[in-house]
Amino acid sequence: MNFAVLSSLFIFFSIACFQRLPAKTLAVKEGEQALFPPRGWNSYDSFSWIISEEEFLKNAEIVSQRLHPHGYEYVVIDYLWYRRKVDGAFTDSVGFDVIDQWGRMAPDPGRWPSSDGGKGFTEVANKVHQMGLKFGFHVMRGISTQAVNANTPILDSIKGGAYEEAGRQWTAKDIALTDRTCKWMPHGFMSVNTSLGAGRAFLRSLYAQYAEWGVDFVKHDCVFGDDLNIDEITVVSEVLKELDRSIVYSLSPGTRVTPAMAQKVNGLANMYRITGDDWDTWGDVAAHFDISRDFSADNMIGAEGLLGKSWPDMDMLPLGTLTDPGSNEGPHRKTRLTIDEQRTQMTLWSMAKSPIMFGGDMRDLDDPTYQLLTNPILLEIDSSSADNREFPSVTALNGPGTGKQIISQGIKKYLTKADKSDSRVLGLTSCEDSKPDGWSIRTLDQDLAQICWNDDSGSRYQAPFCLYKRKLPLASDADTINNQNYQGKHHLLATYGMELCLDASSNGKLTAKEFNRGSFSPCKWDANQMWVLNNNGTLLNSHSGLCATLNTVQDVSRGIRAWIATGEKGQIYVAFFNLNSEKTTISANISDLDKALPGRNLKEGSCKGSEVWSGNDLGTIGGSVSMALETHACALFVLNCSG
User: Fold this and answer.
1) Which of 111, 143, 423, 456 is most buried, judged by most C-beta within 10 A?
2) Rounded to an integer, what distance in angstroms lies between the CA atom of residue 27 and that of residue 310?
C-alpha cells in the first residue's frame, strides 16, 4: 500500500469497485429492524479512541462467549478509528487521519492491519460475524476538515467515478459548510450541503461503502441534540433504506434533547441519545431520571423507527474497567460507581427500555459486573415489558423530604434544600414546541437593542434575562453567498461592546450531569453564533435550526423516584430509587398501583412478590410495599397479582 503526502495530509489511495446500489433483495423487511432495544458492547468507555484490531477482536470474542447467550449481539468501535496513533494526535487534532482518494475515512492500518490494501473493515466484520455477533462503528457528521483541505473529488457510487453535474466534477470544497463545524470537534468535521446533488452523493458513497464492509450498526455523532442536523439525518436514513444490508442507525449526542426534538427524527433512526455522555459519577446517573420520565410520558419508547422501531438511548454503561473521557490511554481504572449506584443505573436503564451497551473492558470482566449485566429479570424487563413509566405515588416514610410533596408537571417530587439553588440555563428545542416563544425585543436607543426572555415565573428577585443584539459583520468577498444566507441574523452579546457572542452549542463535550448554561466565545462567522428573532417570539439558531428557551433547572441528584412496568406473563414490576445521600424508606400503596394500572383490580392481599436485589420473598403483600434503601440504592419488586 502506498501513501502520499498531500497538503501535509495522509491520504490513503484505494481502488474502488463502482456499481449501482443493488436492489433490496437482502434488506430487512419493513417493520423488522430494532424490534427490541439493541444490546451489545462499545469500546469508548474503556479505550477512548485508541483501540487496536487485536484488542477489539479479543473483546468481541469474550462478548460472544459470555454476553451473547444473554442477548448481547453488537460490538461497536467508537470514534477516530481512522486516526493515526502517533505523537501529536488527539481528539481534535487535524492532519493525522487516513482518508481515501474520495475523502472518505479509512481505518488506520497501524492499528487495523487487516485494512491494508484498501480492504477497510471487511476482514474485521467477517471475523465478528463468524463469532455470531454483529459489527458496528462510530462516524462523525458530514465531511472531515482534512478532506476539505485536500479538496478530494466526490465519488458517484451509483454511476462510478467522480461525481459530475452541470458539466463539471465536484469536490469536497464545493459541498463543505465551513461555518457549520462540529462544535465539540471543530477542527475535525463539518456539515455538507445536502441541497446539492454532490453533497448527497458524498453521504451515499460513505454508507454504500459501510455496507460493502459488512457493517450492521452505525453510531452517527454530532448530528443530534445541540448539534441537530435534520437534513443529514434524513439523507442518511433514505440511503440506508436503499441498501441491500440492514444497518441499525443510532444518533448522538443527546445534549439538551427534548421529546419534541426527538419526534423530528425518531422515524428516521433506530436509537437516539437523550443526554450528554454518561460517565461513572452519581450526578450522571441521576441526570437520567427526569429525561427518561419525559420520554416515556410522550410514548417515545419503542415508537416507529427506521424500518422498524426506535428507542431513546441513555448511553453506555460505564462499569468494570474503564479509561477517562477523551483520553489517549486505554483501560486503567475501575468504575467509580458504588455497587448500589451500578444497580440503580442498570435498573433504571431496563425500566426505561434503553438500549444496553456495556462500555467496560471485557478482558477484565469481574463477576459482580457480569452478574449485573446478565441479570435475567432486568434483561426481560428491558426487552419484553410494557407500560413502562415513572410512578409518582410513592412516599418517603423517613429521611429528607418526609411528607413534603409538590406537583411538578404531573410528577410528585420531594422538597429539599437543593430547591433553593435553582438556576436558569439556556435550552434548545424544536421551534414547533410550545416552550420557546417567550422572546421579545427591547429597544434601548436608536442604535441599541436587547432580546429578552419574558419570564412568567412570577419571581420578583430575578432580573430579566437579556442579550444585546448586534448585526453580523460582512464576510469576505469570497463569502458573498454566506452573506446572503445570513441576512437578518444577529450575534447576541452578554455585554454591549465586548466581542464575546452567545454559542448555541457547547464548544466541548458535555456529560449527562452538565448543563450548557449558554457559553460565550469570541465572535466569529459561525452558524453556531447566528440568531434570528421570529415574529412569533421564537429565537432561532442557524447551526441546528432549533429555538432557544430559558429553563429553570433543579438539583436532580436528590429525592425519591419510582417506576412501574408490566411483564408478558402479567407480572408487575415496581422499582424504587433513593437519590438521597441518607438512608430512606420508600413505600407505595397497592391501591395506587391499581389506579396506575386500570383493569388489574388490585387490592390488599391480592399480590405476592419478591425483591430482586435482596432476594427476599415478600409472600402475600398487604396494603403497601415498602423498603429501606441505602444512599443511591434501589429496590426492584416483582409482583404476581390476582384480580
Assistant:
1) 143
2) 18
pLDDT of res. 440: 87
232: closest CA among 264, 185, 274, 277? Answer: 264
Global model pTM greater than 0.70: yes
Helices and strands (DSSP H and E) totals, the chain: 15, 39
Residues 311, 598: Cα–Cα separation, whole Å: 26
pLDDT single digits (tens) 352-366: 999 999 999 999 999
CA atoms 510, 516, 521, 526: torsion sign: positive
Provide the pLDDT for residue 30: 57
Contacts with 454 (C-beta within 8 Å, 6 or more apart), sequence order = 438, 439, 440, 464, 537
Q: Is 112 within 8 Å of 51 (Cβ atoms)?
A: no
Binning the chain into helix, strand and coil, the percentages to the nearest 5 are: 25, 30, 45
Cα–Cα distance, 97 to 52 (Å, whole number): 15
Report the candidate in 528, 486, 530, 531 with the shortest Cα–Cα distance to residue 507. Answer: 528
Beta bridge partners of 493: 468, 501
Would you call the peptide bond into 464 cis, given omega within 30 degrees of 0 as the criterion? no
**Non-local CB neighbours of 594 within 8 Å, separated by 6+ positions:** 600, 601, 602, 603
Cα 620 to Cα 611: distance, rounded to the nearest angstrom: 13
Q: Over range 177-188, report the average pLDDT.
A: 92
Phi, psi of 529 (to 5 degrees): -110, 10
List, for residues 503-555, the tens digit of each pLDDT value: 887 666 667 666 555 678 888 878 888 898 888 888 888 888 888 888 766 66
Q: What is the mean pLDDT of the chain?
A: 87
Residue positions counted in the chain: 643
Taking the CA atoms of residue 362, residue 368, residue 373 and residue 376 in that order, the dihedral angle to the nearest 10 degrees is: 140
Task: Return the higher-pLDDT residue of 485 and 245.
Answer: 245
pLDDT at 457 over 90: no
Pull the grid cell for residue 59. Answer: 473483546
Region 629-640: mean pLDDT is 97
Eight-state DSSP code of residue 473: P
